[in-house]
Amino acid sequence: MTTVTQHAEQLSTTTLLRFATAGSVDDGKSTLVGRLLHDSKSVLTDQLEAVAHASRNRGQEAPDLALLTDGLRAEREQGITIDVAYRYFATPRRRFILADTPGHVQYTRNMVTGASTAELAVVLVDARNGVVEQTRRHAAVAALLRVPHVVLAVNKMDLVDYAEPVFAAIAEEFTAYAASLGVPEITAIPISALAGDNVVEPSAHMDWYGGPTVLEHLETVPVSHDLTACHARFPVQYVIRPQTAEHPDYRGYAGQIAAGAFRVGEAVTVLPSGRTSTIAGIDALGESIDIAWAPQSVTIRLADDIDVSRGDLIAPADDAPAVTQDVEATVCHVADQPLAVGQRVLLKHTTRTVKAIVKDIPSRLTLDDLSQHPAPGRLVANDIGRVVVRTAEPLALDAYADSRRTGSFLLIDPADGTTLTAGMAGEAFAAAAPGAETTAADDAEWDF
User: Fold this and answer.
1) Counting Cβ atoms within 10 Å, is residue 104 exposed (0-12), middle (13-18) or buried (19+)?
2) What would the pLDDT profile of 395-417 be if each residue is shown by its tens digit?
3) Looking at residues 30-49, what average pLDDT do you find?
4) How far, in Å, CA of 286 to CA of 268, rounded?
5) Which value, in Å, is the radius of gyration of the alpha carbons in the chain?
6) Taking Cα atoms as reference points, which of 97, 404, 430, 351 lies closest to residue 227?
7) What CA–CA distance (Å, rounded) separates 23 from 142?
């Protein structure tokens, strides 16, 4: 019992890292994740036995660690990842939520789902093939989603005799590309997921590499979950009016604080109406509190009886976002059906859904050289492009660079509710800063 208590206390004091894996098909993502879970002692005995049994049925002598994450029958039969597989594990230093995303081009949209909340992305590259188009696509998605840390894992080094020049060439090409997208930090690590080199334990075959293993980097990379420093935003999810004998005049606005903090007595603006009031009270878990911060779910009471409904946004009066009906954004198109100019859609932003029309598609991104293909007319599955959308009602939209929560939106097919695109308001990529941090190892000889 003491051991369980100590373990619970240990987990409560460790930080949480959300990360996603990506890369081209057969680059070894699922094997890397399986090796990471196995070598960090995060796999239960019965899970290992099930994997060993499934491997024997496929004629393999050694357990195929990729089966730890490839859970769908179609995935195991084809030896590929189709769906986003989420895994939760912990070490004494940190807790992890992992999204193992597919590598096939037709499932790139799943990577958008997996990386949308990630603080780090691990992009795998087969050392034999180098940087391919899908590698560049995943790097572009990570940059668009403003993932702050990217790890380049050059896998299958055992198949190129652990050659340092092979790793150096791939790392140089990828880091130059990712840095041009504005990725703030890139760390390159040579690994062999199958053999376990530099995944959890340092490799005995690559003494020329002096940097961290994958797990060591995951455990030590700095992450910040402090949303209280962001612009305060509270999307209203539900209006609470009991109208009972005990609470005849109670009117509260319930939801989850998207960012920042709210205090009793603070002047606020309700958008898109623009009406102002003061926070009279904040209720959480049946008790009144003086201050609440993201990501708490609370009920806010206002001093004035003004019209507030689901989809409205409460923000500080002196720090409210601009309201607009013309949305310019970069989108990742995720549906099989194309998105065309003139198409009528629904736009879902936080808790608000409004009618909209696609007024223009100015460009589509060409991943080979990051050029913009002008006026494509439409976007097809897995395309990344710029769109201009006109909404029927005003929206209080932040730039995605300022807030991943209130700067993102979805375009939805009004006929059947299919999600068409994932949108990020504002500029597409962060500016490529001259001081963008790029590391491949601690050795001074790495100059890229």
Assistant:
1) middle
2) 999 999 888 889 999 999 999 99
3) 72
4) 23
5) 24
6) 404
7) 11
